[in-house]
Amino acid sequence: MPKQHATLAPSAAERWIHCPGSIRLSDQVPSPESTSYADEGTVAHTIGQLKLEVASGEVPEKEYGDTLHAIVRSADGQYWCGEMDEATDYYRDQVLERLAAAGADATLLVEQRYSLEPWVPEGFGTSDAVIIGGSTIEVIDLKYGKGVKVEAAKNPQLRLYGLGAAMLFGDLYDLDTVRMTIIQPRLDHVSVEELPLAALYAWAENVVKPAATAAMGENAPTACGDWCRWCPAKAVCRTRAEKQLELAAFEFQRPALLSSEEIADILGRAEALQQWVSDVEAYALQSALDGTTYAGWKLVEGRSVRKYADDLKVAEVLKAAGYDEALLYERKLLGLTAMEKLVGKKKLAETLGDLIVKPAGKPVLVPESDKRPPINTTEAAKSDFSNE
User: Fold this and answer.
1) Which structural domain range is residue 326 located in?
2) Residue 304: which H helix or E strand, with range?
3) φ and ψ at 287, to 5 degrees?
4) CATH number for 56
5) Beta sheet of 189-196, edge-to-edge order
6) Inside any domain, residue 250
7) Which member of 110, 168, 172, 176 has the lowest number of beta carbons within 10 Å of its beta carbon?
8) Among candidate residues 170, 200, 215, the one where a domain is terminated
9) In-domain check, residue 43
10) Does residue 165 sit in the same domain as residue 29?
């Protein structure tokens, strides 16, 4: 469902709180195009919203059926599958469980919009679901993606949702606690942060308001960090470039002569450097396609692979030439990811049981902050991995 977005959107709060200057920089580059992941998420939110409204009696079953039918028949129909049906059921059920736990007199609001003006100029947001029960107000956010697990703790987007909802209903209810919940169905992940309302207001005054004021002003400061990942200006930002070029300026010796401390330092920065180079390359390619020229570089046609102009006609011609149809096709079972999308993760697991196995993964060197447990580095373990 298309939504209007604020200049200082809650969804980008992690970025503009840490890097107020990113707002002005982003205004100077083309707006990023919508991705298939974003479009898929929009469809999931629409269906999740409808399922909640049907469950609460706001929308009749027929309207849900008509809307779903329209989605399936539209270009967005490519995203509807068993996995999405299962995921939005999970979201609905989680919200309804929280509503029941909040008490018989609790209130559920779906797609609730509110202002953030006291702290964010022209700021507003919309929560997927809000539950008010007793002295607690809970804001719930559906995250359909499964590439990155999103946590509620210290999440600026969720905190802004909680802030806006608490302010909107503060005159009607005697609130003292704000609960912020992320539901990520495809990862079976639910994350919660709960704060006293006074602490949330203090965070808004001491952190959000100064950053928002700086972001809307001239010469706002910039800073490089994990928040650069979704910044529209990430490929041309000078602050980010200077940060990454620190590693490129490292006076490398042969790797065998580097100390373990030096290698640890390089590993800590290499991933960010590689991502920055990829971002610059993607930006330069698109700019070149739009007419920008770069000294010493040119656009050429990349390598391509032969393919059939029409699969059906190819088969017809070969069959007419006397080839057995069975020889022209290969039969292959869908991979697990595609099968889960078709059937639904939960239903597939229930149906196949121990026919789904998860072998040990190959060793990967990651920062200590990674939540995965370290592997056994005995000689036997090393031998097992080398055999793979």
Assistant:
1) 311-355
2) none
3) -65, -40
4) 3.90.320
5) 107-115, 124-133, 136-142, 177-184, 189-196
6) no
7) 172
8) 215
9) yes
10) yes
Tell me, yes or no, whether 195 and 339 share the same domain: no
Residue 330 amino acid letter? E
Q: Kindly state the tokens that stand for 266.
A: 């390089």
Instruction: Report the domain count for the chain.
Output: 2
Residues 90, 81 contacting (CB under 8 angstroms): no
Task: Say if 90 falls within a structural domain.
Answer: yes
The pLDDT profile of the chain, 388 residues, written as one tens digit per residue, is 445 456 899 999 999 999 999 999 998 888 888 889 999 999 999 999 999 999 988 889 898 899 999 998 999 999 999 999 999 999 999 999 999 999 999 999 999 999 999 999 989 999 999 999 999 999 999 999 988 899 999 999 999 999 999 999 988 999 999 999 999 999 999 999 999 999 999 999 999 999 999 999 888 999 998 899 889 999 999 999 888 887 666 655 566 677 888 788 778 778 888 888 888 888 888 888 888 888 888 888 888 888 999 999 999 999 999 999 888 988 889 989 889 988 998 899 899 998 999 888 888 888 888 888 888 776 444 555 555 5
Indicate the pairing of strand 177-184 with strand 189-196: antiparallel
Closest to 91 (Cα-Cα) out of 205, 218, 188 = 188
Q: What angle do CA 187, 88, 80 make, to 5 degrees?
A: 100
Q: Is residue 361 part of a domain?
A: no
Burial state string for 169-192 with b = 16 or more CB within 10 A and e = fewer than 16: beeeeebebbbbbbbbbbbeebbb
Q: Are residues 29 and 174 in the same domain?
A: yes
CA 36 to chain CA centroid, Å, is 12
Q: Which of 215, 232, 254 is the last residue of a domain?
A: 215
Rounded to 5 degrees, φ, ψ at 218 are -90, 155
324 Cβ neighbours under 8 A, 6+ residues apart = none
Q: HSE-up of 125 (CA within 13 Å, CB side)?
A: 30
